[in-house]
């Protein structure tokens, strides 16, 4: 079940998509209608899907917690709904690396403040430096301090930490541990400016693989955690004692006892290991340390747990298992702030048969395990697992003992007991956040229940998307967890694609005139790299690989599903009739070409490689190079043929040092015309035509009119409307995009770490604003303030149709009495005039059946008092207030 994080963004970097200025255009850009349409944005629910290396609870405010992901941003816990809210969706295209979060810190003095150290790679894959983001409103908005070095949210060692810490006594002081030999850094002005701690004696020396020429595994993992001893300071004065962990097996822990003026290696410390975590129990005077022989998150074969007595300097090996009996390192580490002496740790790199969690209630003198053998291979668990909310976490597996499904986890480097609730624990895995709310059962002899606590946290790298004209509205190709068939975008699918279960799906396609026929290709350690479905992706069967295939590549289905063309890794382009039992090499097209099919003619296929376009009219047996010139020279190109239009092809891609933009062909690729009003484009997709339009709607992730964003055209590219906004950018969105052929305005956007985003338009959708509820109807409103901070708040509103007739569109109005000012809203089109706020439905949520509810949320500014509205009107009707 090992899941390796796919580096999707490398595709863009290899072609230089993210550097430099826009290319020169043949003509001046056509003006763009910016924000002419209001879109609501959501995730197609998967719930999780990626590695969560850090969970941080605030130490002074209940229920305030944050999670960080390696490529998908940061999240804040919402206690009322038991969900996570994304906080870094405003990160834009040019700063895509800032979606990787290497550390997060919540201020215990001022809980409204939160900090995130961001940057995805320290090698050349990420062209930008890292930064420290700071927020005074719990992540609702951010300011940025750029750093003179890179940070590695997706680098080896990313589960160690936390590298970023706020002084619990003088919260204007922060420390940051840097990788790559850049040392220890400090801010004394609440993260606005940073300077290196010049006298810190050790920048670290451990690299996973010093011989790695890419710079990925050979990077020095540097300074890996900072921990304050809050008992050595008073409010307003800098904490005296600070512990720092360094990626150096012989010199792993340093300490300052004079607020960072001087530093010394901690005497008597164990050697031969890396200290992944250092967690202080100030009440008992113990610093607990979790050690591994490797930096993680995948590797680690030996480890130990140690306890350091801060008062006496005594070191005690408290390892729950003898080193000779381990095949893993330790990393996840937490103490119970309500019950001093209770400590827990994880065997983070125990891949087989399962991870292990250890618990001690006597400061590490004795331990119990989450599971143990009765008689091998049989296990007895102290826990039960309930993954009914995310059933795909079983992976559809049927393992033999001692393996079980679902697994307790893997890559379990984040482990936290709620500092205010001894019963609640959360831990991160390579695919989700698990948690329990009856942890005390561990000690009483009962079983505690482990469930996914991940709703709202969507972390998948998306490689391809398809929205067939019938059947499921969305099929996805994902990194690490393969992909899903969504029959309902608001619900978690029961299982990812299986039979076979690719670790990463690289490409998928369906037959345009027979959408029940679907094909996907992907990566698998052993086994076939292609699979077929005859029921719209509900069930699958494996095909047969041509000789030499090593990876998925791209695949195309004929318009009628009668044949397929496949361009796999490790082998040249091949074609077959039927379902891939006998492949033949295609002629006239180079290996590694991107392949697509004409959506009308079942014998026409297209290819692209290194600036050249290729066409086959004999079912993929032979291709001919098109005479078209002026196309992008690199391979960072995505193209598609228009459904219903024979020979109608759109091509997007390029690089800033050459041709870059959007091209259109109406003669099957013989010639292409570049659109002069598109400066850069990286994806192209089609959706249902606008009302009154004859041509399908175009969607692209592009730079148009000098603005990077998601754009829509309803007039064949003559004019464009930006449909996202600066708060909804999601970093790099260059992998795939598609509209929905059944719902005008709906678009699906691939992200590199924030899952599948879909947007619905308020501009002429299928269920636009109507006349409001029936005059004889009735309504009920529930208004909840879910989060408050100095100068602002967030609220959720639920409107219930308590009448007997459905609503076809709705408009809710209320007044603020304390001068509150609306700043943004989601799932509703909201505006404010004076004290009156009006929230109207967006396109997709206008129809509300009798007895059903609709919800939306918003943020607003406030000053001091924040009284809740006491009266709401839906159209002309007054609503009951719950």
UniProtKB/TrEMBL annotation:
Domain of life: Bacteria
Signal peptide: 1-26
Domain CBM2: 772-882
MF-aspect GO terms: hydrolase activity, hydrolyzing O-glycosyl compounds; polysaccharide binding
SMART domains given in the database record: CBD_II
Signal listed as a keyword: yes
Pfam family, one: CBM_2
PROSITE patterns for this protein: CBM2, CBM2_A
Gene Ontology biological process: cellulose catabolic process; xyloglucan metabolic process
InterPro entries per record: CBD2, CBM2/CBM3_carb-bd_dom_sf, CBM2_carb-bd_dom_sf, CBM2_CS, WD40/YVTN_repeat-like_dom_sf, Xyloglucanase_GH74
Entries under CDD domains matching the protein: Sialidase_non-viral
The UniProt record lists the keyword Signal: yes
PANTHER family referenced in this protein's UniProt entry, alphabetically: OLIGOXYLOGLUCAN-REDUCING END-SPECIFIC XYLOGLUCANASE-RELATED, XYLOGLUCANASE (EUROFUNG)
The protein's name: Xyloglucanase
Native organism: Streptomyces swartbergensis
């Amino acid at each position: 079940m090992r899941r390796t994080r796919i580096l999707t963004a490398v595709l863009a970097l290899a072609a230089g998509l993210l550097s430099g200025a826009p290319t020169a255009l043949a003509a001046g850009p056509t003006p763009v209608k910016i924000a002419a349409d209001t879109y609501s944005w959501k995730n197609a629910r998967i719930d999780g899907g990626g590695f969560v290396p850090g969970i941080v609870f605030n130490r002074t405010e209940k229920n305030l917690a944050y999670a960080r992901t390696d490529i998908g941003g940061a999240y804040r816990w919402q206690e009322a709904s038991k969900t996570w809210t994304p906080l870094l969706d405003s990160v834009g295209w040019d700063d895509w690396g800032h979606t990787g979060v290497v550390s997060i810190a919540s201020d215990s003095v001022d809980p409204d403040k939160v900090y995130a150290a961001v940057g995805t790679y320290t090698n050349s894959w990420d062209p930008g430096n890292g930064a420290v983001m700071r927020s005074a409103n719990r992540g609702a908005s951010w300011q940025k301090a750029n750093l003179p070095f890179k940070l590695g949210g997706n680098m080896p060692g990313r589960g160690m930490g936390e590298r970023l810490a706020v002084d619990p006594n003088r919260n204007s002081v922060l420390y940051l541990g840097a990788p790559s030999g850049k040392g220890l850094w400090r801010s004394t002005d609440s993260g606005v400016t940073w300077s290196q701690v010049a006298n810190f004696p050790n920048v670290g020396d451990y690299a996973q693989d010093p011989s790695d020429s890419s710079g990925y595994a050979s990077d020095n993992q540097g300074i890996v955690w900072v921990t304050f001893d809050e008992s050595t300071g008073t409010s307003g004065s800098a904490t005296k004692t600070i512990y720092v962990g360094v990626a150096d097996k012989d010199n792993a822990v340093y300490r300052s006892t004079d607020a960072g003026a001087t530093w010394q290696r901690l005497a008597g410390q164990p050697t031969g290991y890396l200290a992944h975590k250092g967690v202080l129990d100030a009440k008992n005077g113990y610093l607990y340390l979790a050690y591994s022989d490797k930096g993680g998150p995948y590797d680690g074969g030996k480890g130990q747990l140690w306890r350091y007595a801060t008062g006496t300097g005594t070191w005690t090996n408290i390892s729950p298992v003898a080193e000779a009996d381990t095949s893993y390192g330790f990393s996840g580490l937490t103490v119970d702030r309500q019950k001093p002496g209770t400590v827990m740790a994880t065997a983070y790199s125990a891949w087989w048969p399962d991870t292990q969690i250890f618990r001690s209630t006597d400061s590490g003198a004795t331990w119990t395990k989450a599971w143990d053998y009765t008689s091998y291979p049989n296990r007895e668990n102290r826990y039960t697992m309930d993954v009914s909310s995310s059933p795909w976490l079983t992976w559809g597996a049927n393992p033999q003992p001692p393996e079980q499904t679902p697994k307790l986890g893997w890559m379990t480097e984040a482990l936290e007991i709620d500092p205010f609730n001894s019963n609640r624990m959360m831990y991160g895995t390579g695919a989700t956040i698990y948690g329990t709310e009856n942890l005390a059962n561990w000690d009483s002899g009962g079983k505690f229940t482990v469930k996914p606590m991940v709703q709202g946290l969507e972390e998948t790298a998306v490689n391809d998307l398809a929205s067939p004209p019938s059947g499921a509205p969305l099929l996805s190709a994902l990194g690490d967890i393969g992909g899903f068939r969504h029959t309902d975008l608001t619900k978690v699918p029961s299982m990812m694609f299986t039979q076979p279960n690719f670790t990463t799906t690289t490409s998928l396609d369906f037959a345009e005139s027979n959408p029940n026929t679907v094909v996907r290709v992907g990566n698998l350690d052993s086994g076939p790299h292609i699979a077929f479905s005859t029921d719209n992706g509900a069930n699958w069967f494996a095909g047969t690989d041509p000789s030499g295939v090593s990876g998925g590549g791209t695949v195309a289905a004929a318009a009628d599903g009668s044949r397929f063309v496949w361009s796999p890794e490790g082998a040249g382009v091949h074609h077959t009739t039927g379902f891939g039992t006998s492949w033949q090499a295609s002629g006239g097209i180079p290996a590694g070409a991107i392949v697509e099919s004409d959506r009308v003619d079942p014998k026409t296929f297209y290819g692209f490689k290194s600036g050249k376009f290729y066409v086959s009219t004999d079912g993929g047996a032979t291709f001919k190079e098109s005479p078209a010139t002026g196309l992008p020279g690199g391979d960072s190109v995505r193209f598609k043929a228009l459904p219903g239009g024979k020979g109608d092809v759109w091509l997007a891609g390029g690089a800033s040092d050459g041709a870059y933009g959007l091209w259109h062909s109406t003669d099957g690729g013989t010639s292409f015309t570049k659109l002069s009003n598109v400066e850069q484009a990286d994806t192209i997709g089609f959706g249902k035509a606008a009302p009154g339009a004859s041509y399908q709607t175009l969607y692209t992730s592009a730079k148009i009119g000098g603005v990077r964003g998601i754009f829509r055209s309803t007039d064949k590219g003559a004019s464009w409307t930006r449909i996202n906004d600066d708060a909804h950018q999601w970093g790099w969105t260059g992998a795939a995009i598609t509209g929905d052929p059944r719902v005008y305005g709906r678009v699906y956007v691939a992200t590199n770490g924030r899952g599948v985003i879909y947007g619905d338009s308020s501009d002429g959708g299928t269920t636009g604003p109507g006349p409001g509820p029936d005059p004889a109807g009735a309504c009920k409103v529930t208004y909840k303030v879910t989060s408050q901070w100095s100068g602002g708040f967030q609220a959720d509103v639920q409107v219930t149709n308590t009448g007997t007739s459905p609503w076809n569109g709705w408009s809710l109005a209320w007044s603020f009495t304390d001068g509150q000012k609306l700043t943004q809203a989601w799932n509703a089109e909201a505006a404010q005039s004076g004290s009156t706020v009006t929230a109207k439905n967006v396109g997709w949520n206008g129809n509300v059946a009798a007895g059903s509810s609709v919800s939306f949320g918003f943020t607003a500014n406030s000053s001091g008092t924040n009284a809740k509205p006491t009266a709401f009107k839906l159209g002309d009707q007054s609503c009951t207030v719950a």
